Amino acid sequence: MNDFLSDLSALLGAGGVLTGQASAGYLLDQRRRWQGVALAVARPRHTDEVAALVKLCAAHGVSIVPQGGNTSLCGGATPDASGRQLLVSFERMNRIVAVDAANDTITAEAGATIAQVQQAARAANRLFPAEWAASASSQVGGALATNAGGVNVLHYGNMRELTLGLEVVLADGRVWNGLRGLRKDNTGYDLKHLFIGAEGTLGLITQAVFRLYPQPAAHATALVNVAGPAAAVALLRGLQAAIGDRVTSFELISRRCWELLARYCPELPQPHATPPAWCVLVEISDAGADAALLERLAQALVDLGFEDALVAHSPGDAQAFWALRESIPEAQRRRGVSIKHDIAVPISAIPAFLEQAEQAVKSGFPGADIVAFGHVGDGNLHYNVFLDDQTNSVYCHEPAINRLVYGVVAQLEGTLSAEHGIGVLKRDELAHYRSPLELELMRLIKTALDPAGRLNPDKVIRLEPPAGGTAAPD
């Protein structure tokens, strides 16, 4: 491989190839669960270099693992332990290419962070609504590769809905330029959707054109205690009936979340003297003034019977509420190792899922500590299970707990991955909860676009079915 590395270094120039200790930070995932060994870390500066390095890899038979901000929660951006895979980091491809305010679009390279795109949109008095806790570090390419969601999906949709066009380097090094800022284009297959959510297994996304929206002038935010998940769903529908599509975020938070925040994030002020069993964090946005919108939200809550809601009376109050919501993952990290689930069910099935999943998990693991929260507005819940053991050895129970949780999800016609992707964490689980025909079609697409299987190999789906078939476990 010396010739390969020599050619790669000549192609990418100074700082373009990292090996040894300089590459170590790229090889351990965010959860510190997966650690790989790479042949090298390649850091291209533009699409032509990506295309050239892909061709070089094809000539030498080298597999490629693409990586964005290394914020994957499913091991999707970590190389294996063979030391024969090339990790491609897009961090140097971080330009905002163009902002077309008249067309409400922005074009960005794959290595630009979500926060960079947001900032560039704000500078043009526009909104790029993708938003989650890791927005400052997650990159465009990774967010597209996992079809990331976040807190604003209720109103604006996930990354798939925000994307109008893509530029993609294919497995043979050819570049597909689909950078079109069109809302309507009915000229055959919409190819961009093959690559969104594919986790780099079908092609390497290098640029994207996103939708922008008018920048809301007013926001209103409130924490509302509810009797339970069914009451939360009823409140969502009540607010939408009263306020319409101005409801942009609607987050469900359980008592256990508040208890973890109080213990592990004491630097954050608690809004409740006694944590409620359940509450929702709701935000509405619109044109006009904050005061008028606050009055409208407060009145709607009163009309729906929630006179005791905590309404944010200043931007600082609202930021404090959101800081608590976004710190729940950090509180969990400080608590210890958990078995994480990123599920989605029909919104109407959320109460049934929470009840049935808790019964199932605690029947098999009576001491389980369940931390549930998430995006009620789109049916996506983060359902995390702690056991007494707070080290990585807890993962020996993961298959059994997954069967319990995913069994309930399947009964309710949900999905085992809503916004975090499949990676390696859920690859084999996917084979149990998708039909043989769906898996066959996925393999046909993978084989057609990457016949040698060199793009992020063994992520998302195996090219060969695992031994034992694909029937769902008992």
From TrEMBL:
Similarity section: Belongs to the FAD-binding oxidoreductase/transferase type 4 family.
Lineage of origin: Bacteria, Pseudomonadati, Pseudomonadota, Betaproteobacteria, Neisseriales
Residue span(s) of domain FAD-binding PCMH-type: 34-215
The protein's name: FAD-binding oxidoreductase
Top-level lineage group: Bacteria
InterPro entries: FAD-bd_oxidored_4_C, FAD-bd_PCMH, FAD-bd_PCMH-like_sf, FAD-bd_PCMH_sub1, FAD-bd_PCMH_sub2, FAD-linked_Oxase-like_C, FAD-oxidored/transferase_4, Oxid_FAD_bind_N
UniProt keywords, alphabetically: FAD, Flavoprotein
Pfam families named among the record's database cross-references: FAD-oxidase_C, FAD_binding_4
